[in-house]
Amino acid sequence: MREPTLGLLLAGGLARRMGGGDKPLKAIAGRTLLDHVIERLSPQCAGLVLNANGDPARFANTGLPVVADSVGDFAGPLAGILAGLEYAAAARPDIAWVVSVAADTPFVPRDLVARLQAARIAAGARLAVAASGGYSHPVIGLWPVALAPALRQALVDEDMRKIDRWTARYPLATVEWATDPVDPFFNANTPEDLSAAEAIAQAMR
Questions:
Q1: Distances from the Cα of 194 to the Cαs of 19, 138, 145, 187, in angstroms?
Q2: When you count CB atoms within 10 A of the terminal residue's CB, does the N or C end of the chain come out lower?
Q3: Which domains does the chain have, with CATH numbers?
């Protein structure tokens, strides 16, 4: 039985290497990076929510609910994950799982949720994260909504910022994806990355 899963698009970064602004709103192949992510993730999920700070109106054309970090000082992706877990607990009590994806990863796999859920179940793990090319991508992960209070305590009381420190506390399944012909977790951090993503997107058409 497929576990209903809420998709969480993390767009809370500061985009310093891109010159500021919202990386997910940069365009490749005629659409924003965010649009590419939504198109790939939406069919896998029981709903999507966007984590972003600042004026939510800039994402209005997505039609998605936007939740800001509830922990201050740009606490990083863990704060975004907490925002998604707490949103799910309040707004979607029918859903026990959240999958987080960086909103600037336009080639995210179409089997992401299915493989993370299957690996978690097979390993008897609490969490699951994606990997490719021998590297783990902890921001691309599967999280139980029930861990929201523990994550809030870690962020607020322990000033925890590293996802790897958090995941080390729980049984973790890591799922590897192939990087040929393209790394599905390629993300655009610089203008050069954006040009590379444009070339990849055109080649995939």
A1: 12, 22, 33, 8
A2: N
A3: 5-204 (3.90.550.10)
